[in-house]
Design brief:
It contains twelve helices and 18 strands. By secondary structure, it is α/β, with parallel strands linked by helices. The chain has a nine-stranded mixed beta sheet with strand order 3-2-1-4-7-9-8-10-11, with helices on both faces. The chain has a seven-stranded mixed beta sheet with strand order 13-14-12-15-18-17-16. A two-stranded antiparallel ribbon has the order 5-6. α1 packs across α3 and α5 packs across α6. The relative contact order is 0.07. The mean pLDDT is about 95.
C-alpha cells in the first residue's frame, strides 16, 4: 500500500467497509470477486488496510481501528491507546494546552492528546505516514485540534507550543531494534535539547531498556506497563527532576523511588513475589520488598521472598510448596505423583526454555491439579521453586 489517496475516495471507503471483516483464509476468493467491479490495485490496497485494521484492534480498540488508516510500521510502532491516554492526561494536568508532537507516526499520541483537549502540531517526515496521521485526525473528528505537517522534525520550530512530545524511531530496516539512544532517529541528545526548550513540560518516549545512566539529570524517568506488559519508558521534563517511578495500567497505580538500598539475600520463605516488569526496569524492587521485610533469593534475580503475605499491586504473590535443585526427572515424578494436569513455567536466571521443560516434565497431563514452576537461581544454584498464585 503505497498511497492512501485511493482509499479516501468514496469508492475506496465503500470498499473498505465491504472487506472490513474479511477472513484472511478467504482473502483470495474475496479479491477475485471484487476485481470484477473495482481496479485490482484498489482491491489489494483495501484488503491490505483491512488486515492492518484487524491487527490494530489490540492497540486502538475495535471502534477506532475500524475507522483509522494504518501503515505496517504504524501498527507495529504505535503507542497503545491506554498508554497514550495516560500520558496525555499527565500533560493536561500539568496545564499543557498545546503540544508539538515530533515524530508523530500515524497519529496515535496526537489523537490521545486531542481527546484530552490539547491542540497538537503533529510532524513526521515520511509522506505516507503523515498522510495516515492526517486521515486519522479527520476520521475521528479531531482535525480541528490536530495540524499534521510533513517535515523533518529537526527543522521544525516548536515555539508557541506549551510542550514537546518526541517519539524517536527506535527501529531500522537494516539493523532492526536500536538499543543505543544516540542511534535513535533523531538522537536522544537532540530530543533532550528540544525538551529543555519547552515552556511548560516535555515527554520523550524511549525504549524500556534504556540504561539508567543515560537518563538526563533534568528528567523524571517513568516506566509504564499495561496489563503486565512493559510498554515504554518516558523521560519527563518540567515535572520532578531525578524522580524514578513505575506506573501500572490500567488504573494508574504508581510506585515512586525512595532511594532504598537493594534488599539482602535470604533463604526462600513461604511466599515468592514476582514484581511487575515496570518495577524491575525502574529498579524499584526494594520499594516493593520493604513493606513485608522481603529479601532476594539471589543477588542477581528480581524475585522477592518473605514469610509474610501482603497485598500489593506491584507484584504477584505465590505460595511456595517446594524448593528443589534443578532436576527434570524428579520434577516429572513429582508432577505425576500429585496428578498435575496444568503446568505453568516461569523463568528468570535460567537458560532452560519453559516450553522445553513443559514438554519433558509433563508430556501427558496426569490429573486436574495445577502447579507453577519457577526456573531460577537460589544463592547461585540452579533451582526449581514449585507453588501456586495466592488468590
Amino acid at each position: 500500500m503505497n498511497d492512501l489517496a485511493p482509499l479516501l475516495t468514496p469508492e475506496g471507503r465503500a470498499l473498505l467497509d465491504e472487506v472490513r471483516d474479511t477472513d484472511p483464509a478467504h482473502e483470495l476468493a474475496v479479491a477475485t470477486r471484487l476485481r470484477r467491479d473495482h481496479p485490482a490495485e484498489l482491491v489489494s490496497a483495501a484488503l491490505g488496510q483491512a488486515r492492518l485494521r484487524q491487527r490494530a484492534v489490540a492497540k486502538f480498540g475495535a471502534e477506532d481501528a475500524a475507522r483509522m488508516f494504518f501503515t505496517p510500521n504504524g501498527v507495529e510502532q504505535s503507542t497503545r491507546r491506554s498508554v497514550a491516554a495516560y500520558r496525555a492526561e499527565r500533560l493536561r494536568a500539568a496545564g499543557v494546552r498545546s503540544v508539538a508532537d515530533l515524530c508523530c507516526g500515524i497519529g496515535g499520541d496526537a489523537i490521545a492528546l486531542a481527546r484530552a483537549g490539547i491542540r497538537v502540531l503533529a510532524v513526521d517526515r515520511d509522506p505516507q505516514t503523515a498522510a495516515a496521521a492526517r486521515a486519522n485526525a479527520e476520521a475521528l473528528g479531531l482535525a480541528g485540534l490536530i495540524e499534521v505537517r510533513e517535515a523533518d522534525v529537526t527543522e521544525v520550530d516548536p515555539a508557541g507550543y506549551d510542550a514537546v512530545f518526541v517519539d524517536p524511531a527506535r527501529r531500522s530496516s537494516r539493523r532492526g531494534r536500536i538499543f543505543d539512544p544516540e542511534a535513535y532517529s533523531p538522537p536522544l541528545s537532540w530530543a533532550v535539547r528540544a525538551a529543555l526548550q519547552a515552556p511548560l513540560a516535555a515527554a520523550l518516549k524511549v525504549a524500556p531498556g534504556i540504561p539508567h545512566e543515560a537518563v538526563p539529570a533534568e528528567a523524571e524517568a517513568e516506566w509504564i506497563s499495561d496489563g503486565g506488559d512493559v510498554k515504554e519508558a518516558v523521560l519527563w521534563f518540567g515535572t520532578a527532576p531525578g524522580t524514578v517511578r513505575a506506573t501500572l495500567l490500567p488504573g494508574s497505580r504508581t510506585l515512586v523511588s525512595r532511594g532504598l538500598p537493594d534488599p539482602g539475600v535470604r533463604p526462600v520463605g513461604r511466599y515468592l513475589y514476582e514484581p511487575d516488569g515496570a518495577v524491575i526496569r525502574s529498579h524499584l524492587v526494594a520499594e516493593v520488598a520493604e513493606p513485608f521485610d522481603g529479601g532476594l533469593i539471589d543477588p542477581t534475580i528480581a524475585y522477592v521472598t518473605s514469610d509474610a503475605l501482603r497485598e500489593t499491586p506491584f507484584a504477584t504473590a505465590y505460595e511456595i510448596t517446594d524448593v528443589l535443585p534443578f532436576n527434570v526427572k524428579k520434577l516429572k515424578a513429582l508432577l505425576r505423583e500429585r496428578e498435575v494436569g496444568v503446568l505453568t513455567v516461569k523463568k528468570r536466571g535460567s537458560a532452560v526454555e519453559p516450553e522445553e521443560l513443559r514438554r519433558k516434565a509433563l508430556p501427558k497431563p496426569h490429573g486436574t491439579a495445577s502447579v507453577t514452576v519457577f526456573l531460577t537461581r537460589v544463592a547461585g544454584a540452579p533451582t526449581m521453586l514449585l507453588g501456586h498464585p495466592v488468590r
